[in-house]
Amino acid sequence: LVDLLVQRARPFVFSTGLAPASAGALAAAIELAAEADAARAHVLALARALARALELPAPAAAIVPVPVGDANSAVRLRDELARAGFAVGAARPPTVAPGTSRLRIALHAHNTAEQVASLARAVRERLPEAPRAAAAPAPRRARVLTVVGTDTDVGKTVVSALLATALRRAGPIRYWKPVQTGTDSDTRTVESLAALAPLERAEPLYAFALPASPHTAAAAENARIEPQRVLARLAELRAELGAGTLVVELAGGLLVPLDEHATQADFLARAGGELVLVARSGLGTLNHTLLTLEALRARGLEPRALFLVGPPHASNRATLAARSGIAAIHEVPPLAPLDARSIEGWVDAHPLAELAR
């Protein structure tokens, strides 16, 4: 019987072998993972929010390495964080090269933005006590400022022109709309309103004639948007620009689908970078704006500013100032005529200096 078990039932003998129950659980986990796009987007957004808070490069996945340098300091930091209620790892030689020890922080889909903010504060409070290893300079890549709307036709293109005009005064800029639907070209509009030079704009990666949601417009032409291609093109444009700001305008509202699985919110969570939110100034904007903010914050995303486009509405502005949690709120009234001169005039009166930093 012993010989039979050793030869035929190794999963029950050796810990490196998988028991049938383990294999079954893994098979089920694969099916669950295939439907977990939202959870993956959420955890990646949390990881990137933590990296931003610690002034580290945006991670490609859920693990954020925090350089410390000395192995003993890394262990001490890990233990101090554990006493504060945070479970983080300490990678040190021989796992990493001598002098490059680091904290290894793994985020999870069940974590919240508030927990990540608390962790970032705890790390910042303790990290200066440990000598950090000198990091090799990273290749320069342009910062990304994404223009997100609460809906379609809320004024994202006008705000994109305002941002391009204002930020050009602080350094190089480029405008990009990844997905264009409808025959009216927002790229041409921003080019005209912001007086863009040819190198200050990039053509859409996808352009469809039907004025509809990206996934619907693509399907009408028997095409499909590939979010990974959009991310790859974003990385290329950032590398090409090198410095300054890449202004990215999304299509429609935050949660419109790009394909059968991913929404623009999922793309934004993976892309990282900074964002501004654009909303109508008038009736209905309170619900639309607060719902969009809720969806953004669920993914660890926080707008740098809120633009209210349309005739000024004192009550809506006051309500959003009290409830949105956004300090910088800009009103953009109808500009007549809407041209490069009126765009320059608005920027002269509202320099948007806080967005140039």
Plain-language structure description:
The structure is a single chain. The strands form three sheets. This protein has a seven-stranded parallel beta sheet, sandwiched between helices. The protein has a three-stranded antiparallel beta sheet with strand order 1-3-2. Helix 11 links the parallel strand 10 and strand 11. Helix 3 runs parallel beside helix 5, helix 6 crosses helix 7 and helix 6 packs across helix 13. It is built from 13 helices and twelve strands. It folds into two domains: 93 residues, Aspartate Aminotransferase, domain 1 (Alpha-Beta Complex), CATH 3.90.1150.10; 214 residues, Rossmann fold. 42% of the residues lie in helices and 17% in strands. The chain starts with a helix and ends in an 8-residue tail after the last helix. The chain is globular.
